[in-house]
Amino acid sequence: MKIIVSDFDNTITKNRIILKENKEAVKKFREAGNLFFICSGRGKNARRGMGGIERDGLLMASGSAMEIGDEVIESYFEKGVIKEVYSFIKKNYPSHVTFNGNSHFVYCLKFYFKKLKNKDLELYDDVTSITSFLFNKKRMLNEANDLNKLFKGKLNTFPNSGCVDIVPPNVSKANTCDFIKNKYGVDKVYVIGDNLNDLEMIERHKGACVSSGLKEVKEKATYVYDSLALYIEDILNEKI
Predict the structure, then answer these.
(1) What is the separation of C-alpha 171 from the centre of its chain, rounded to a whole number of angstroms?
(2) Confidence (pTM)
(3) Which listed site, 11, 60, 148, 216, has its alpha carbon 20 to 30 Å from 194?
(4) Mutual orientation of helices 81-92 and 137-150 as an angle, nearest 10°?
(5) Is 217 within 8 Å of 236 (Cβ atoms)?
(6) Cα–Cα distances in Å, from 212 out to 207, 208, 216?
(7) CB neighbourhood size of 74 (10 A)
C-alpha cells in the first residue's frame, strides 16, 4: 500500500478548478489499493470546491482539524492565546482575519475591530486555526516571524497564498504526514505541494513540487512535476 498526502489549492486545482487529469489519477491510485489524503492550510470549514475529488481523509488547517473516515482529530490553542493573537494583529497587522473552529466566526478586523471584544474571544475554546489575509508577501513573512517570536511554543505560523496560517503548536503539514505514516505503518509517505506552507513537508518527506509552484519551494523539492497526475503515474509505476 502506498500513501499520498497532497496540498489542494494550486496543486490539485488550477484557477480553483480540480483538474480532470488529477481527479482521474487519484481515482486510479485508490482503486489500486492505495490511500490519498488532502492536507490543506485552509481553515476547517473552508471546504468550497473540495467535494469533487476522492480521498481517504481530509487534513485541514495543516492538520489541526483532521477527518479520517469517521475519526475526527483536532488540536486547539491553549486558553488565552486567541485573545493575545487578536490584540497583536489588531495593533500591528490589521487585516481580514478568520478564526476557524466549531463555532466558526469571521471578522474583517481592518474595518470592524469594534465588533469583536476581547471578552468574546474568551468564549471560544475550539479554534483550530487563524488565518490572517495580508496579500503582501513581505508583510506576510514579517507577521509570521513576529508571531513566532512573540508566541514561541504557543503557535506555529506558515505563509500561504496571500495569507498567514496560524495553528496550534506542533501542528504542521510535515508533522501531519508523520502522523499518517505512523498510523498506517508505512515506510514512506509521498507528498506534493506548491507553496511556502508545504516546504517543510516536502523537505522532510523528500517530496515533490508542482512546476507552477514557488521558485523557493521547487529548489528544495526532491522532484518537480507538471501535475499531480504525472507524480501519481510515476509512483504507480515505481519510478520513484
Answers:
(1) 10
(2) 0.92
(3) 148
(4) 140
(5) no
(6) 15, 12, 12
(7) 18
